Task: structure prediction
Amino acid sequence: MFKKILIANRGEIAVRIIRACNEMGIQTVAVYSEVDKDALHTQMADEAICIGPAKSKNSYLNMQNILSATVLTGAEAIHPGYGFLSENSKFAQMCEECDIKYIGPDSNNIDNMGNKLKAREMMINAGVPVVPGSDGEIVDETNALQEAEKIGYPVMIKASAGGGGRGIRVVSKEEDLVSAYNTAKTEAETAFGDGTMYMEKFIEEPRHIEFQILADEHGNVIHLGERDCSIQRRNQKVIEEAPGVVMTDELRKQMGEVAVKAARSINYKNAGTIEFLLDKYGKYYFMEMNTRIQVEHPITEMITGVDLVKAQIRIASGQVLPYKQEDIKIQGHAIECRINAENPNKNFMPCPGEIKTLHIPGGYGVRVDSAAYQGYKIPPTYDSMIGKLIVLGRDRDEAICKMRRALGEFIIEGVDTNIDFQFKIVNNKNYIKGDFDTSFISKEFQNL
Ligand code: ADP
Ligand code: ADP
Ligand code: MG
Result:
């Protein structure tokens, strides 16, 4: 097992990883930007090294500085968390070359799955059903019009390098296609430095169902069931739950086997997520694979009892998965609300600033993963997510009641948050009935 791990991230996920290391008796090294000098992850790690100014480009994305910090502190492995360098194949490759263990899949896997066009192609070859769409890249406006005609409206234009819901546009009629294609392409070029676009059939009123995978370095691959992440705003997840409301044991078995097959076909290693769309007729399609730990991983931990971050570290150290598929049992129902410093009444505008008062909910079945503390100043530089509230109930009804109760206890003063908005969602009658799809928020909260 590793003696020391460097965490190339910040915020709640850095804290989450430090906690896992701590329990495993592994020393931790935090890296931080100048503005994160007093951040919780900087304070909690055994050692902390400043890697540059606030801007991510100069700090959390600065591969040279992060690798130097690793060598300097004698850390043997790097955990990339999510976001930042977690899906950067060049970084994984540089780690490989420097003989530093990257806690995640190898650079090849990241490269192939990070390119969504390539991922589609590989999944088609592996016999995994994908969303009907363009064969390859959409090269120009004329090509876009031709492909849309072939696929049939409505269509979705997507960035091959996309992530975080950006570089995506839905087009319902021909007149709107060219301008949507151009704006999505420009957005992708700005956000990802890569304007490669493709097109998919827009699946109407689908659920986002994703499967958690664990694969060791000895050829063992299992899944840990699904998460329903259909409660989204602008293609970004807001609430996730596990298991999925509409899932049956049979569908879980089927989709789980497809997810395992997908991971196996690319010789995948470590933790990963296969995202599917499940349409209203019960047909499912591969959408993308995320080659990293996911924001919503705790809900899977709550219902399976498997600590996914520890599993990642154990896998990276070469250990064999200690469980087989049949050992994974799902118990109870878990829900996660992402808590963001933002104002839902001002178009969800981020609201950085000082947390003047903080009261964190607790009690049986309540978990808060956060890097916030009273007096902490949320910098304007990074993501507005300041924590995650996770509950585990015996069943979905109990989980919803617990979430309402816990949201009610949560007090954050000094910055605007989406806590009240989350409260409205978990009190919505269609949400309570489990009657929702990815269009839920835009339909139910039109005035926002
Ligand atoms: P998850 O399924 O884990 O919620 P998200 O797509 O929401 O994944 O991404 C998790 C984090 O990573 C978010 O902070 C998001 O902004 C960031 N992220 C994801 N993909 C990219 C990308 N290609 N470039 C930059 N940031 C990304
Ligand atoms: P990202 O990398 O940004 O997470 P995804 O490909 O996972 O991109 O898509 C993000 C979200 O957009 C999905 O969770 C889903 O709600 C929606 N979406 C993506 N593709 C389609 C599609 N073909 N039809 C309908 N909705 C889609
Ligand atoms: Mg996705």
